[in-house]
Amino acid sequence: NEFADLSWEEFAATRLGFRSDRRELWSGVPYLGALARSDRPLPDSVDWRRSMQAVKNQGACGSCWAFSAIATIEGAWNIAMGVRVLLSEQQLVDCATANQGCGGGAMSAAFNYYLDGGAPICTSS
After folding, report:
1. Domains observed in the chain
2. pTM exceeds 0.90
3. Per-residue pLDDT tens over the stretch 89-119
4. DSSP state, residue 33
5. CA 18 to CA 35: how far, in whole Å?
6. Within 10 Å of residue 26's Cβ, how many Cβ atoms?
């Protein structure tokens, strides 16, 4: 497998996840009660295969927060607009400074980055 040639230290440094005591990372997180709601009835089932992009690989960068936030935005955009877009995780890793880049972060801070006008939504090239 892809990890067989890594020492324990190399594996731990690149794959064991985000550990942070930074409370400010979670400050200002909106709660569901603050979001707009729709009175439309929910469908009995949803087939997400036509709304989501292919699975992506973050590699050794601790950017699962960026990949999960971008996948959420891509899916929501497709459902709302009927258009599939491929957005840039790297933009969040580099520019959403409330998170820690490849050192980890939170989806909520990524969403706040866009909601606060941190950048236009740029597609991957």
Report:
1. 48-125 (3.90.70.10)
2. no
3. 998 899 888 888 998 888 888 888 888 876 5
4. G
5. 27
6. 12
CA-nearest of 53, 76, 61 to 18 is 61
CA-based nearest residue to 121, from 72, 57, 52: 72
How many of the other CB atoms lie within 10 Å of CB of 75? 16
- Going from the C-alpha of 40 to that of each of 37, 43, 85, the distances in angstroms are 9, 9, 25
Alpha carbons 91 and 121: distance in angstroms, whole number = 9
- Answer for the pair 77, 83: CB distance below 8 angstroms, yes or no: yes
Residue 90's φ and ψ, nearest 5 degrees, are -60, -35
Cβ atoms of 13 and 99 closer than 8 Å: no
Token pair 């930074």 in the structure block, residue:
22
Task: To the nearest 10°, report the CA torsion of 122, 77, 53, 20.
Answer: 70
Residue 12, φ and ψ in degrees, nearest 5? -60, -40
Q: With cut-offs at 50, 70 and 90, classify the pLDDT of residue 1.
A: confident
